[in-house]
Amino acid sequence: MAGGWARDGAVQDQIDDTISDAVSAARSRMPQGESAQYCDECGEPIPEKRRKALPGVRRCVECQSGKDAFVRHTAYNRRGSKDSQLR
């Protein structure tokens, strides 16, 4: 049951949209193409098992971990109704 001016099911729609946006963002960050043999950041060799597990990988585990640490997630639902954002 939705409250205010929102229709029934609106809250679930917001949750679904937030999850869909997060999945799309994660997929856009996935590597594509041919894997590099050496890390683009530090120049160290990338193990063959990593290259096979993640086709298109361009960084070693350490450098990728550092880059992943800077990915920011937002709790603000931009698709939400004005009513839900005022609470």
Describe the protein in words:
By secondary structure, the protein is an all-alpha fold. It has one domain (10-73). It is built from four helices and no strands. It has helices spanning 10-28, 48-53, 61-68, 82-85. It is elongated, with a radius of gyration of 19 Å.
Question: Could you list some keywords that capture this structure?
Answer:
4 helices; mainly alpha; 87 residues; single chain
Helix content: 40-55%
Biggest sheet character = none
Number of helices: 4
Distance between the termini: 16 Å
The count of β-strands is 0
Q: Compute the gyration radius: what is it?
A: 19 Å
- Give the overall form: elongated
Low-confidence stretches: none
Strand content: under 5%
Overall mean pLDDT stands at 80
| Total discrete domains | 1
- One letter per element, helices H and strands E, the order comes to HHHH
Structural class: mainly alpha
Fold blueprint:
Elements: H1 10-28, H2 48-53, H3 61-68, H4 82-85
Provide a brief overview of the structure.
The protein is mainly alpha-helical. The chain has helices at residues 10-28, 48-53, 61-68, 82-85.
